[in-house]
Amino acid sequence: LLCGRCFSKLGTVALSGRRQGTFFLALGCATDASMPVAVARQWQASFEAWAEKAAASWWRASPSPGAGERRVRDATGGCACGCCAFEAAILPGEVQHCYCNLCRRLSGAASMSWVPASNDRFRWTRSDGLRLVRTTRHGQRHVCIRCGGVLTIVYDSQPDCTWPVAGALDDESLEDGQWYRVIHICCSMMQPWYRLP
User: Fold this and answer.
1) Residue 73, strand partner residues
2) What's the confidence (pLDDT) of residue 138?
3) Rounded to two decimals, what is the model's pTM?
4) Using an 8 Å Cβ cutoff, are 1 and 77 in contact?
5) Residue 30's pLDDT is what?
């Protein structure tokens, strides 16, 4: 479930498994002050990871000693409905996790993760539902207006770089390990129920 105007993710319904038919609120959209401290602490203590082995390598990434220099890897990605797709030369050893209110709302999660790509090797291969939307004073995001998928962020201060959202990259585009730069930004805006990995 998402907002058709701003593309904020509000929740999802489990379609199979023991929780089939259950609605899950996307806590990225919950206002920070609405979460009682006692509930936040309980969630931190009783958090249950689902399908942990299927989790993307970038989610729990930490810099590896001796991971080496910056390198480039060809990657592909796109939105959930398939109307928008891209090819890029990403820097697969770098990931930026952002905890700002907007990233949380647009993803419905605790944060949104980004991987940098140089514009000289970034191109859209499908763009039927693509729209570039100014979302902040300092940046714009490419969004699929059909499925609501957020695909990239383009910072005004970095006109030569596009940051695809890590979740939009095809699974085979990011290899495990060898992270040399992992940063967490806007941590002061992180929701009280979440703990850094």
Assistant:
1) 90
2) 93
3) 0.81
4) no
5) 76
